[in-house]
Write a sequence for this structure.
């Protein structure tokens, strides 16, 4: 049995409508708080929209839930410095998300150049609202496996340098290059790591055939990248913290001629991280990564409650809801060595 402070998820997609009703409770069962991504259709662009979305999330939770959704705004060409200030003052919005235009699911309203955004980034510096970045180049000539590296060189590093007070989260990093950059970066730069990038390399996309449930963006990378990510997660370096990027899609939209990007891990997220940490005998480092460093980065108090993970092998259910179009849970049919103990 291991006991750690209640973890938080610093990057999750909860969606809206019926999908929200299906998935929000799963994240709330695992985590105390979560940074909720704004890539709805249409995107969450204003503080008012974030407040309304937060209400819909709270309504979809079980009655006794103490889960706190931490909202984000979607940065577009229309975002204003006044909106950044409103968001920072709201007590409801905790970050502004940058999607390079077209980079991923619902990123069409994203940003195609950062140079014009300087006044907004200055507003984020002034009001201490972190910029959360999906770090992939959208240059159509860029190889899909090089997108993160190219983005790091062309967008991310220059932005961090130019805006010396800007707090930045390099989201769901996937490469050794990104690990090396973040570990040398100032403390105002952090990075989230997903369970899939700690557990799998890109071979998993093609294991015995095409595996749509292993497809997410940024796409899985080489084994040497996975090893660098796992070393970073288990190093005790506070730049690196937990962000599942749990991104549910209906089964039919994944198992399709043009399948959506996104892996749904929320129901078993902590068990997956425990599996990854145990694989390198580093479970004693899980608490910092899962429960301390993210809260510290965002300037929020660490959670006081405790959670337990019991050591016992079990198999992840293939289709717990019985609905054939429900989002497929990552790792379905495979076994895990730890199980989260429910509270109460
Ligand atoms: C996310 C989604 O489906 O919203 N998909 C994904 O593959 N990670 C978007 C994102 O975070 O890139
Ligand atoms: Zn995401």
């Amino acid at each position: 049995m291991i006991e750690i402070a209640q973890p938080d998820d610093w990057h999750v997609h909860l969606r809206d409508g019926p999908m929200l009703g299906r998935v929000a409770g799963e994240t709330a069962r695992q985590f105390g708080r979560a940074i909720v991504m704004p890539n709805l259709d249409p995107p969450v662009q204003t503080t008012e929209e974030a407040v309304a979305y937060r209400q819909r999330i709270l309504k979809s939770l079980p009655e006794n839930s103490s889960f706190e959704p931490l909202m984000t705004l979607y940065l577009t060409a229309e975002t204003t410095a006044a909106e950044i200030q409103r968001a920072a003052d709201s007590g409801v919005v905790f970050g502004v998300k940058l999607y390079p235009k077209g980079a991923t699911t619902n990123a069409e309203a994203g940003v195609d150049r950062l140079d014009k955004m300087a006044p907004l980034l200055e507003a984020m510096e002034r009001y201490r609202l972190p910029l959360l970045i999906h770090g992939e180049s959208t240059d159509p000539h860029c190889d899909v496996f090089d997108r993160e590296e190219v983005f790091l060189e062309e967008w991310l590093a220059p932005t961090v340098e130019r805006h010396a007070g800007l707090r930045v989260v390099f989201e769901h990093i996937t490469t050794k290059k990104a690990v090396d950059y973040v570990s040398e970066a100032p403390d105002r730069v952090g990075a989230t790591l997903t369970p899939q990038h700690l557990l799998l390399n890109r071979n998993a996309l093609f294991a015995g055939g095409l595996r749509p449930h292993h497809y997410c963006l940024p796409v899985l990378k080489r084994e040497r990248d996975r090893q660098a990510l796992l070393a970073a997660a288990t190093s005790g370096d506070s730049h690196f913290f937990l962000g599942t990027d749990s991104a549910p899609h209906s089964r039919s939209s994944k198992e399709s001629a043009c399948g959506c990007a996104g892996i749904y891990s929320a129901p078993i997220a902590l068990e997956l991280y425990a599996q990854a940490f145990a694989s390198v005998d580093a479970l004693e480092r899980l608490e910092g990564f899962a429960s301390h460093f993210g809260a510290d980065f965002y300037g929020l108090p660490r959670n006081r409650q405790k959670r337990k993970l019991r050591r016992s092998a079990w198999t992840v259910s293939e289709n717990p809801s019985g609905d054939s179009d429900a989002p497929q849970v990552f790792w379905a049919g495979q076994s895990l060595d730890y199980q989260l103990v429910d509270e109460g």
Notes: Residues 147-162 form the longest helix (16 residues). Residues 2-341 form a domain with the TIM Barrel fold (CATH 3.20.20.140). The chain has eleven helices and eleven strands.
